# Entry
Amino acid sequence: MSEDKVFIFDTTLRDGEQSPGCSMNLGEKLRMATQLEQLHVDVIEAGFPIASVGDFEAVREIAGVVQTAAVAGLCRAVAGDIDRAWEALSHARRPRIHTFIATSEIHLAHKLRRTHAQVLKDVDAAVRHARSLCPEIEFSCEDASRSDIGFLAEVVAAAVAAGATIINLPDTVGYAVPEEYGHMFKEIRARVAGIEHVVLSTHCHNDLGLAVANSLAAIQNGARQIECTVNGIGERAGNAALEEIVMALKTRGEYLGVQSDVVSEELLRSSRLLSSLTGMMVQRNKAIVGANAFAHEAGIHQDGMLKSAITYEIMTPQSVGIKHSTLVLGKHSGRHALKQRYADLGYTLAPEELERAYKEFTAIADQKKEVFDEELVAILDERPVELDSYFHLENLHVSSGTGVRPTATVELRRGETRLVDSATGDGPVDAAYRAIERVTGIAGTLTEYSVKSVSYGHDTVGEAFVRVEFDGVLFNGRAVSTDVITGSVKAYIEALNRSQASLTRKKEQAKVEMEVTA
Ligand code: KIV
Ligand code: ZN
# Structure
């Protein structure tokens, strides 16, 4: 069977970013978009321009920098949304307006309160309007998998007749099972005249853990675009994971009769970048990009692997971007060696990035004999603190042990101001977090906390991850350090700084909205 191309539509920056604790600022979104281009995805959905000034700006900026992929902006099937999306997208090399309306009885009755006839009229008007602005129009039937197939076919026919070039049939609530979801595509292809002139697309949520399986079932029934997110981030249980889709197409492409143009060697790097930008780590046993994905533990497996890798390995670690080397750096390694090592690992560092990495590297190399590749990558994933309004850790002193009440003294800097205070707590981390609350006057509730080792040995670098609720909103933080208490404190400060950035964005948006309504 000849292998057809499947278009990979990445919605990490739109559907993915909607998931709690995954919000990114403009700079972070631009960094991610640049990496998505390296990955060679076909479409980058950059945001929902009408949703907020921040989203509008992000779509506009991303549209300006992306060179090869199409850039999509989401909008409801109403003229105002479509115009706003077009304002953000029009200067893209390949703009795509992505407009949607719900089609299930549940959504029509309880959310839209619209009749079938009204929805059909809305679809026709919205798609015609969008098409008058932009040649590439994607139309999505929200909750397609729970829609009446007859009505769904009518809506799709209306969208195709009005000029849609891509039709997306989402499993919005992650309810479908593969055979059923695939069947929906088969039916739509059989019922809608002219459907062969548009690309059919799948968009699956993972509530039952079936998002990737459902996406593949759609492919087997004629879909040729898959919407997915890096690390599977997204609403609730997330979206279909891009890395799983890409490796399924690569590993089983012959069976499925399809292939994608994604550079799979960039998968791990994309996954790590997203984790570092959002603070949302992947679980160790996550397929493709989890720390254990290529680790063979059982004796019988190790024996087989040593005899021949194909006994237990269906894809190579190298094919997803894992690079191994026996060369380790230590405290005598200079900038040049560090730069070279990063280059070998596939990272080209700008001079200021190298400088920052070198500073972190020497601090770690002072504490331990050998610095491993995993630790070098973890250093790179640390984000430089950008704003004056952010808090920086200047000094930390903690005393704890058996028979003493743990005490922490924290000194933070915010712009030119230095803030110092101490507190006691149930443990050293608790004491430090309480001290931060005292110096900043900002209370947060820790909802998740973990520390894991980045590489090997008891002197390895620890990676701390926290999720903290400030004013009812969750923010993630991540940091690496050879000292787990310092790492924990830095991770907390990162979450705190994210909450400050979000407050600033909200204030700016309220100001713009006041100006618009004045
Ligand atoms: O899940 C969904 O239905 C969506 C659409 C808006 C494409 O995200
Ligand atoms: Zn979705």
Observations:
- The chain has a mean pLDDT of 91.
